[in-house]
Amino acid sequence: MDKIVEVKNFRMTFGNKTVIKDLSFDVKKGEIFGLLGSNGSGKTTTLRALLGFYEPTSGELLINGKKYDPEDTSVTVGYLPEERGLYRKESVIDTMIYFGELKGLKNPREWSMKYLKRVKLEDKANLKLEKLSGGQQQKIQLGITIMNEPKLLILDEPTKGFDPVNRRLLMHIIDELHQKGSAIIMITHYMDEVEKLCDRAILLKDGVARAYGKISDIKKEFGGKSLDQIFVEVYGGEDEE
Amino acid sequence: MKNSPIKTVFKFETIRQLKKPSFWVAVLLMPVLFGVMFLISFVAGSENADTTPHLAEDTVIAITDKAGVLPKDNPFNKYDSEETGVEAVKKGEADLFFYIPKDFLETKKAQFYHISEGLEIFNYDGNALKMILSQYAKLKVDELDAIVLAGEYEINDNKLTATGEPSNALGKAIVPGVILVVYFVFMVLFGSRLLMTVVEEKENRISEMILTNISSKHLIIGKILSMLTLGVIQVLVMVIPMILLLAFNWNNPAISSIVSIIELDPATIAVNVVLFVASIALFAAANTMVGVVVPTARDASQYIGPIVVASVFPLYFMQAFMATEPGLIVHFLTYFPLSAPVALMLRSTFGTLTPVELAIGLVEIIIFAVIILRITIKLFQKNAINFEVVKFKQLFKR
Fold it and tell me: Would you give the DSSP letter of residue A91?
């Protein structure tokens, strides 16, 4: 089976409001997949339902052919959520080791120190997380997400709040994981990132797929426009925020 | 191969609590407070116990007896009137002067004059008069009457059961009662800490990251076990110094009089231990649920209050629980889920719990603990990204 994620006829209703309407798509093993759309289009809701935080009103959301179970060792998942936080009163290294052990790493301390050195935070290892800046905390969260080299990496706006230097570093880390065979689902509002990194994408509006497929096919479908232009065309230049 | 997730959570939660200075302040504060209270009561007790006057050999005592209590030729009869006696005290001719008025028999009041030496809270020199009067009174009656009048004898209380066996209800209740006290200590120490640690994931917006790596069931069980261990550590830190204190004061009459009546009743002790374990499970489940349904620790306080009040409610009806025939309120509290743990332990301690009532109560506690824990685990997963208080009907939603 070459699909790591399958979403079939997914429908999600909160009270009287239907936020996702019969959505279907899949993500292949080893590809980088862009989940695109304006705020409130249903991207995060889809990811949360995929990971079992929401019970879908109808339809199926599968990872490796099954409903996601965090303790199923047949597939490893790393998730960097939109709603981010850490144990603020704990030290950087203790938090990373904790997550490393939960993810089954053999030597989480060694991995963590290597990662901290790479993101230039090795001198912060014993500091409490609350002492770190927002950007530094985000790097720690990313480290925690990728520490077990997951087969499926889900990133909800990973570059939000990053300066260009750190954004480039993050892109490099994502690319490395991709090279090692991880499938990556990425929510982002930066269309240049999508064009540069993603193999395929889906563009959502009001819980419905407006475009889906290879990046080149999507562009062809919209008369050779750039993703940025396609985004503006689908949303009619409106600002939904 | 992953480590056991429960073990990982247990280790992380336990070590980080043990590393917190606030944990040790809370742990040590209680024994220190107990120690200070014990010391104060010990000092006050020993002071109170010894009310005999401590007089120097050359202390001059004078008594003017207008009521005729003492024989006229007593050696203390030095002054004719109250005024002359007081003058003698002022001049330093007499150290202690007592005046027994003519109407002493009616008023039962005598006057005591001496030069004050400050606050003199523990000055019992005035009791010198009682000792003198008592000695003279004994001379007027025979030895037996003297013992009877002075009440200088003991009454041995030989309680019997309805079947005529020797009864030691108080002695039997001491150890089961201690188990109940330990349960209260656990409730106070363990409940709030468990609540905080459960609500922490949401408060720090970390729920999604953690629940992608571990099931809510394993996370909650790991947390509960960790908090239980910390509770045990805290209880041991409190109990060990008390045991040492007892061991070093084994010959103290106050301690030995209590120890001598203790009777170990294995059945009652076993019942209270089983009830203790089941009750902790129920209390843990209830606290965890509160932690799950609220978004912040601050919100939790308004929900945890009623649980604690309901848990300790049987104590307000202690008299009713001590009665040999349990009344309606006792029966109600025995079967109301939140008050059942304390009610059952109290009744077991006082020997009024029947085996049938115990079985029903125990099963009820276990069933409620399991149901609440199952709902809580499901809610923790589904409510991980809800940052509002969960509505009541959501608790039972599939």
Answer: B
% residues pLDDT > 90 (chain B): 30
Nearest to A70 among B1, B12, B212 (CB): B212
User: Is B322 a residue whose pLDDT tops 90?
Assistant: no
Query: Least CB-CB distance to B209: which of A69, A79, A88?
Result: A79
pLDDT beyond 70 at A77: yes
Please tell me the total count of domains within chain B. 2
Cross-chain Cβ contact A102/B213 below 8 Å: yes
Is B208's CB within 8 Å of A79's CB?
Answer: yes
Three-point CA angle A23, A42, A137, nearest 5° = 130
The percent of residues above 90 in pLDDT, for chain A, comes to: 59
Which residue range(s) make up the domain with B108? 61-150
- How far is B195 from B192, CA to CA, in rounded Å? 5
Mean pLDDT of the region A98-125: 94
Say yes or no: B332 and B216 in one domain. Answer: yes
Chain B closest CA to A82's CA: distance in Å?
9
3-class DSSP assignment, residue A96: helix
CA dihedral B206, B211, B217, B219 (to 10 degrees): -50
In this complex, do A94 and B16 lie within 8 Å of one another by their Cβ atoms? Answer: yes
Taking CB atoms and an 8 Å cut-off, how many pairs form between chains A and B? 82
A234 pLDDT tier (thresholds 50, 70, 90): confident
- Indicate the domain borders of chain A: 1-76+152-241, 83-148
Q: Does A78 touch chain B (CB under 8 A)?
A: yes
Mutate to test the interface with B, among A63, A98, A130 (most CBs of B within 10 A): A98
CATH class of the domain at A1-76+152-241: alpha beta
A contacts of B212 (beta carbons < 8 Å): 51, 70, 77-79
CA distance A154 to A182: 10
Kindly report the nearest CA distance between residue B381 and chain A, in angstroms.
6
> pLDDT, tens digit, for every residue of B236-294?
888 888 888 778 777 777 777 777 888 888 999 999 999 999 999 998 899 888 888 88
Residue B248, Cβ density class (10 Å: 0-12 exposed, 13-18 middle, ≥19 buried): exposed
In a domain, B163, yes or no: no
